[in-house]
UniProtKB/TrEMBL annotation:
Family affiliation: Belongs to the bacterial solute-binding protein 3 family.
Keyword Hydrolase: no
Segments forming domain Solute-binding protein family 3/N-terminal: 52-272
One of the Pfam families matching this protein, by short name: SBP_bac_3
GO cellular component entries: cell envelope
Signal peptide positions on this chain: 1-23
Protein's recorded name: Solute-binding protein family 3/N-terminal domain-containing protein
SMART domains from the UniProt entry: PBPb
InterPro entries given in the database record: SBP_3_CS (IPR018313), Solute-binding_3/MltF_N (IPR001638)
Compartment(s) of residence: Cell envelope
Keyword annotations: Signal
Amino acid sequence: MKKNLLKLMCLSLAAILTFTACKGSKPEENKQEKEENTATIQTIDAIKEKGKLIVGTSADYPPYEFKALIENKEEIVGFDIEIAKKIAEKLGVELEVKDMDFAVLIPTVKSGQVDMIIAGLNPNPEREKEIGLSNVYYESSQGVLVRKSDLASYTSVDDLKGKKIGAQMGSIQEEMANSIENAQVKSLPLITSLLVDLKTEKIDAIIMEAPVAKQYANNDEDLAVPDFVLESEDTGTAVGVKKENTDLLQFINETLDELKADGSIDKFVVDAISLSNEQAK
């Protein structure tokens, strides 16, 4: 009898301890969940409250984004910047543009230091795992920039085999360069640094989006674009946001759809090319 009574008391004590432990863990779990939600969610309301849309870009990629002297003051311009202005305008806030190396754009938006990134960003499955990507707002092919004196040597993609090829660090073009047979790939954060290497014969060619390559060739008589393009599934460009910011992404997509429908993006591209040409004179 005593044995049964002792067993019953032990079971009761164990049940009480288990209930207490479970009961005590819930507030801590709720607190952790609340902290995670607070840390990761940044809404349109938060952007409106601070009064500005903070945008990350890499301003060495005309006509997408580049630096220009406007009324004796250096500004970051380009058709990507005009799109960002429209998004900020529609939100009713100011636009703040932060210039940085292309390779750090995704980590920067993931950490919440900027609200969105726009920099000729090609969407692909790897990037979709890390950040939220908008609908494609502009499509172009991938091209090559070479020295004009060597132009005759480049008639097809095969002529890039075994060459010293430059590409922007962290870009789709870097991946493409690494896929070329026996290519010696040099990756740098800035296109402008790659241009110096091309002109001083440290590299033979640079892979970049065709409109950008043509723009650099138009602005420099020593450079040229061969008459072929590189095959790639990543032909479009998109805006990037923190993955959790779904409301902002939806807002951006709606704005992009409007700008495409009324022809604004096409006009922004033409104006940016024109401005880039003027700056080169």
